[in-house]
Amino acid sequence: MYLRIREKLGDTNQNKIPLYLFKSLRMKTALYFLIGILLVIPSCKKLAELTQFNLNYNTETTIHAGPASNLPFDVFTPEITTASETEYEGRKTNKNLIQSIVIRNLVLKIKEDSGRTFDFLNSIKIYISTNGKPELLIASKDAIPDTIGNELTLDCTTEELKDYLIQDKYKLRLEVKTDKILNQDITILIQSIFRVDAKILGL
User: Fold this and answer.
1) Distance between alpha carbon 203 and the CA centroid of its chain, in Å?
2) CATH level 3 topology of 54-198
3) Are 54 and 193 in contact (CB under 8 A)?
4) Residues 6+ apart with CB under 8 A from 111
5) Domain boundaries, given as residue ranges, for the chain
6) Which of 94, 149, 174, 189 has the most crowded CB, counting CB atoms within 10 A?
7) What pTM did the predictor assign?
8) For residue 187, how many C-alpha atoms fall within 13 Å in the half-sphere facing its CB?
9) Within 13 Å, how many C-alpha atoms sit on residue 93's CB side?
10) What is the CA radius of gyration of the chain?
């Protein structure tokens, strides 16, 4: 059995190619195509690893002893140094190539090993600020139960934070409501994880 293939070379000629040979060529072409895809997929994954990475920042603040307050009051952190240039250089990028930064996780922990829990909190909101930028809500938690332990994971927003995290420093403001008396100061560790999408230098 033969397959007829027409080729135009000035005049129209007809050549006969065995069908088994044609099928073999087609299978080889498909195999090469599959191998090409398998080679590209790891490269794409590797590129994603290079262009997406986390920035981890920790800071502390203190909620001072006092009566329960259903009216919100503010607690501020010190300025947090981002060290972003060092982070970006290690990832083969720089702040001019950052596409997006969003917060992925924010956890509060009571620093003292005193058995104290976050049961005194009714609700909490955390805002980020930096020079020349408006304050922005990044995480919150409402209706905090009395059964909460000494660690509290907040609900994060999806706000774009690139303009805040490419700065050298930023600050956090905690807006707090309490429903129990605090008879001692409570030092809180704030652990934040931000997800960065960036372009790679030279690509």
Assistant:
1) 22
2) Jelly Rolls (2.60.120)
3) yes
4) 60, 187, 188, 189
5) 2-45, 54-198
6) 174
7) 0.75
8) 6
9) 22
10) 29
